[in-house]
Design a protein that fits this description.
With 219 residues, the protein is α+β, with helices and mostly antiparallel strands. It has four helices and six strands; from the N terminus they run αααβαβββββ. The protein has a four-stranded antiparallel β-sheet with strand order 2-3-4-5. It has a two-stranded antiparallel sheet with strand order 1-6. The protein starts with a helix and ends in a 7-residue tail after the last strand.
Length: 219
């Protein structure tokens, strides 16, 4: 009888030990697993564009403009205004990097829908005039270009959703002798309003950067 009871106790103890081992192995606080170290993801290599210039070259360009253009601009503007306050010539125009990224994506999407490849951006110099957003100040505006129907140039999106060359929008007298749509159908950039959009034509031209003389300390 004692032997039978001893066997029963030994069996029960063995089962209890197995249960405890199972519980311990399932306890996340007791189980230690090796956590693999996360390797740093390599940054994509970007090759510098060949158009990048040195700081010295940039300084020379800036100084050439200050010496060869700014005095003439200031003299002209001071002679054409009543105020004696010195006119400050614009020497840079700044766009936020995020704005440029969004603009490029917008142009690419519109060009893609129109089934053309916008392959470059033209930066035009302009002037707001006496009644403009920033009176008499110089500015720049950006125009995307593409090949359209075996021709090439700046383009806009027509009312039919197709890409069209801007040079063909202007009447013949204002377009170097080329035929174009009557300008009276819509107002365009010179008035700086949105009436160009009222007949479903869509401009892709960007303006309204922040401009001024060179910030102190740059060049």
């Amino acid at each position: 009888m004692k032997t039978k009871n001893f066997s029963l106790v030994r069996t029960s103890t063995g089962i209890l030990s197995l249960c405890l081992m199972a519980l311990i192995s399932c306890n996340p606080q007791q189980k230690k697993e090796a956590v693999p170290e996360m390797a740093d993801e390599p940054m994509e290599e970007v090759i510098a564009p060949k158009e990048i210039i040195s700081l010295k070259e940039a300084k020379v360009l800036c100084e050439n403009y200050q010496n060869r253009r700014v005095p003439n601009i200031v003299e002209f503007e001071m002679g054409d205004r009543d105020s004696e306050e010195k006119f400050m010539a614009t020497q840079f125009v700044a766009f936020k990097l995020e704005t440029l990224k969004r603009y490029i994506k917008y142009v690419e999407r519109k060009a893609g829908k129109a089934e053309v490849d916008a392959d470059s951006l033209r930066i035009y110099f302009g002037n707001y005039g006496k009644e403009g957003r920033d009176p008499n100040k110089n500015t720049v505006f950006i125009l995307p270009t593409a090949k359209i129907a075996n021709d090439y140039g700046g383009f806009y999106i027509g009312a039919d959703g197709q890409a069209k060359l801007i040079r063909n929008y202007w009447p013949k007298a204002e377009n170097g002798g080329q035929e174009g749509e009557p300008k009276s159908k819509a107002s365009f950039m010179p008035t700086f309003d949105t009436s160009f959009m009222q007949d479903n034509r869509e401009s892709l031209i960007m303006n309204y950067g922040n401009g001024g003389p060179p910030p102190t300390g740059d060049f």
